[in-house]
Design brief:
CATH class: Alpha Beta
Radius of gyration: 17 Å
Strand order of the largest sheet: 3-2-1-4-5-6-7-8
Distance between the termini: 36 Å
Strand content: 15-25%
Structural class: alpha/beta
Order of helices and strands: EHEHEHEHEHEHHEEH
CATH topology: Rossmann fold
Helix content: 40-55%
């Protein structure tokens, strides 16, 4: 039996993917999200569909919370596991967490890196799939401002943090050639990500009606997960939905990549 870790499992794409994976035999799902009650309900749904699942509540919004989650997962999973990074935050306002860092920078970038570190060090992972976003092409990284959200805007910060994690995962792939890594744009999906109140929220909800359902996206992700291999050893590939594409130009900027490496190392060394 193989293990598959799925973050952001309680809602949207993650919830739909868990249900789509449930009928697959010889696989155990480790479902991760902050809401323990929703996770337990999802475990029950997966089991009704014939699958096996375990709820692992955890929070990627702080470095310490992410570290504890990774250590817990490393204790639970067996070697050869797949990790699906699906959790994400599209912020509506600048909020600093207990570390003094902007919350989506941690949730979308630092937290997932810290969480998976224990799994990599323990030799638990064979594959990592990152549910990213095509909007990373609009991302920019400012070492002095992005970690604390001093360059905050609702759209730009989402793009920036998605770019950060995609760049970091290219480095992870290079450092761990034994792990198959892919980063992808999942499609334009109708979820509550970026939900807003008031008139803006209502207008956005009307636009989203034309977007694809999470179940459609989940079926696409299942097909990708069933591929024998995603990337050559030591590299990571970029997919737009199911099609491989060249990495966007913004991800090839050497100065940006080095600045992010240096900043990430400094921030994690201090915590």
């Amino acid at each position: 039996m193989t293990d598959l870790i799925l973050t952001g499992a309680s809602r949207g794409i993650g919830h739909a993917l868990a249900l789509a994976l449930a009928p697959i035999r010889n696989q155990r799902l480790l479902l991760v999200a902050r809401d323990a009650d929703r996770l337990q309900a999802l475990v029950a749904d997966v089991e009704r569909l014939g699958g096996q699942a375990l709820a692992v509540p955890g929070d990627l919004g702080t470095v310490e919370g992410a570290r504890k989650l990774g250590e817990r997962l490393a204790e639970l999973v067996t070697p050869g596991a797949t990790l699906v990074h699906n959790a994400g935050l599209w912020p509506s306002e600048r909020v600093l967490n207990a570390d003094g860092l902007e919350t989506s920078f941690v949730t979308n970038h630092l937290g997932p890196l810290v969480m998976q570190r224990s799994l990599l060090e323990a030799g638990r992972l064979r594959r990592i799939l990152v549910v990213s976003g095509g909007l990373l092409v609009m991302g920019r990284f400012d070492a002095a401002r992005t970690p604390t959200g001093e360059d905050f805007s609702s759209l730009r910060t989402y793009c920036n943090t998605k770019l950060c994690f995609a760049l970091a995962m290219r480095d992870v792939a290079a450092a761990h050639p034994e792990v198959d890594v892919v980063v992808l744009h999942p499609g334009v999906v109708r979820t509550d990500l970026a939900a807003r109140s008031g008139l803006v929220g209502w207008l956005l909800s009307q636009v989203k009606r034309a977007w694809e359902r999470p179940e459609v996206c989940a079926a696409r992700l299942v097909r990708i997960l069933q591929r024998e291999r995603w990337s050559p050893p030591g590299d990571a590939r970029w997919l737009m939905e199911e099609a491989e594409r060249p990495w966007p130009a913004v991800t090839e900027n050497a100065a940006t990549r080095q600045a992010l490496r240096d900043t990430t190392s400094r921030l994690l060394a201090a915590r």
